[in-house]
Request: fold
Amino acid sequence: MPRPLLLPILLAGMLSGAAFAAAPGNDPAALARIRDSAMSSDWAYAHLADLTDLVGPRLSGSPGAAAAVTQVAAAMRQLGARVTLQPVKVPHWVRGQESAELVEYRGRPAGLSQRIVLTTLGGSSATPAAGITAPLIVVRSFDELRARAAEVKGRIVLFDVAFNQQMADAGLSGAAYQQSAQYRFNGPQRAAAMGAAAVLVRSVGGADFRIAHTGLTRMADGLSIPSAAVTTEDALLIGRLAARGPLAMHLTLTPQSLPEVDSYNVIADWPGTDKADEVVVVSGHLDSWDLATGANDDGAGVVSAMAVINILKQLDYHPRRTIRVIAWMNEENGSRGAQAYFDANRAQVGKQMAALESDHGSGRPQGLRTSAAARDLPLFAPLQAALLPIGASVLRREDAVDSGDLSELEQAGVPSFAPLIDGASYFHYHHTAADTLDKVDPQDLRRHVAVMSATAWFLANLDQPLRRWTDPLK
Ligand SMILES: [Zn+2]
Reply:
């Protein structure tokens, strides 16, 4: 008699096995359900409001960055994700006084000066508290800087290089940014090496609202120099006055580099089923510049990644591989979070199956950029079909996506992904005092969540791992 008793047990086992096997995977209906859930959810926008309105600016090392870690970790725990805080030592740079005026120029009425609107660059060193006064020279390229090297010593150098908005309008905003931002990254140390007293750059961005754009400048050891970005309008004024004759500026910048601070990447896992040890990273960066609340850079990216778990939880969907949401720390001025994660996973990088980061604002997503192997692109047809109804079916292959926090993983062979975003107006507000919640369109943010969720799900359920460029027979 005991034998027949086994049957119901076996049946129950088979049924649950069958239910497991019937987990939705990458069938079109599941992808469509993920997309539609994202398009009808305001979870991401509500969490973006919490991050930007309640926490505010989140530069590494600041109390805001610490509060953001706590807030995001709590939100992910509330969803039932497995949360870990990965320790990261971060730089702690703080802005001080920042002011400038042109005190000498040809044709200046007695007693007048012209105020210049500027903002200190991240990593800048300080002038004395009372400021410096020095002659100013204007250059428009590194070639011109070299040609005029004899004039640089003791002067304030302005790199007056216009942002190419036409390129941004044509869909190449990232390339336009790199073209101008090289002067912000490298100009100060190059001019410092020639003995400059301070460096100014024209703000990197396409808007003309007389707002200054901050951002990181590289400072080699021993070549630290006071550095700031002037607004486009002020760069144009300086250029016009320089054409009339010599000019001089009084400049006061008093930032400080404080001792490094303990901080964290927030890591939230939605565990996989039969391939739980294989990981698909979906991410944004949690730190932001200090002038505003980082709604676009990169609050939108972080909450879009966080919302992936919310969507899957709502649908009770469990992927084959683990979907790992990461809110990176310190993308803006050091990439220490990315470095800590890479160091921790370097030996097992084969288990990092794919990585996705959104860090190009909350403009309308048109699809995906990816460094996946060209031969694997046909696999993505079901994902593209699912994203077609929201206008996000483009799959643009690039040799390197080169998203800041993913670049080491990508160089180690991990296929990388980023939403392909309309960034024509992204650099109007990026790194300015105007990067605030009101710049984020709730409908576009829903589209971001749809792209991130469907992509993460799709990657986590692929039958075969994607090829890597490091694979011998790729
Ligand atoms: Zn960013």
